Amino acid sequence: AQKITQTQPGMFVQEKEAVTLDCTYDTSDPSYGLFWYKQPSSGEMIFLIYQGSYDQQNATEGRYSLNFQKARKSANLVISASQLGDSAMYFCAMREGVQGAQKLVFGQGTRLTINP
Amino acid sequence: NAGVTQTPKFRILKIGQSMTLQCTQDMNHNYMYWYRQDPGMGLKLIYYSVGAGITDKGEVPNGYNVSRSTTEDFPLRLELAAPSQTSVYFCASSYGQGGEKLFFGSGTQLSVL
């Protein structure tokens, strides 16, 4: 069964610093996808970035990048030059297969606080 | 540009009551989902649908029912509400191709007392 683990319940970072949020996963399916979502205090779920298991390069979306280490089964989110608006819960999620329904399994999340 | 619309936003139920959470999307997505988020936790899949008339169970389906009579609507029914169903419920939709994102509704906060 697929599983996502986020070992950092909370992180505190100074504004403008880079931050890495950890995510490890477990699956026996050779084809899978990894996602990061942001949940601000207002509660909505905001998609940040996606990495497919067969993608050769690490995914990047603006200030977000995904450090994908397949052999270690890790998919860490890196936020460069953090901003106060980055304070939120961050969830790593995975799907097995890359077609059809997005049956995501989520980690427990990391609460990121950016200090001015 | 409505996207995914959920109603109601908040609801308090008494134990044993029933209710339907409404979800509609205007993006013509084939795939729709219901997730629940317990306090301090990640989301868990309750049910999903791959098209009108086709639904299937997710990870935590007990105590819930769904139907999908149209592409746009995917209501979630709670029968005989229990305190364990106190949670935030999210409806979502997607095209279902590759790694595209889920489009989430704004959530329904449900308390069962």
Describe the secondary-structure layout.
The complex is a heterodimer of chains A (116) and B (113).
Chain A: E1 3-5, E2 10-14, E3 19-21, E4 24-26, E5 32-39, E6 46-52, E7 60-61, E8 64-69, E9 74-79, E10 88-96, E11 105-106, E12 110-115
Parallel strand pairs in A: 2-12
Antiparallel strand pairs in A: 1-4, 3-9, 5-6, 5-10, 7-8, 8-9, 10-11, 10-12
Chain B: E1 4-7, E2 10-13, E3 19-25, E4 31-37, E5 43-51, E6 54-57, E7 64-66, E8 76-78, E9 87-94, E10 103-104, E11 108-112
Parallel strand pairs in B: 2-11
Antiparallel strand pairs in B: 1-3, 3-8, 4-5, 4-9, 5-6, 7-8, 9-10, 9-11
Give structural attributes:
heterodimer, A: 116 residues, mainly beta, six-stranded mixed β-sheet, four-stranded antiparallel β-sheet, 12 strands, 0% helix, B: 113 residues, seven-stranded mixed β-sheet, 11 strands, globular
How would you characterize the overall build of this protein?
The complex is a heterodimer of chains A (116) and B (113). Chain A is mostly beta strands and 116 residues long. Helices cover 0% and strands 52% of the residues of chain A. Chain A is built from no helices and twelve strands. In chain A, the strands form three sheets. In chain A, strands 2, 5, 6, 10, 11 and 12 form a six-stranded mixed β-sheet that branches. In chain A, a hairpin with a 6-residue loop joins strand 5 and strand 6. Chain A is globular, with a radius of gyration of 14 Å. The N and C termini of chain A lie far apart (41 Å). The mean pLDDT of chain A is 94. Chain B is globular, with a radius of gyration of 13 Å. Helix content of chain B is 0%, strand content 50%. Chain B is mostly beta strands and 113 residues long. Chain B is built from no helices and eleven strands. In chain B, a hairpin with a 5-residue loop joins strand 4 and strand 5. Classes of the chains: A mainly beta (116), B mainly beta (113). Chain A binds chain B through residues 4, 33, 35, 43-45, 47, 50-52, 91, 93, 98-109, and chain B through 31, 33, 35, 40-45, 48, 50, 56, 58-59, 88, 90, 92, 94, 96-102, 104, 106-107.
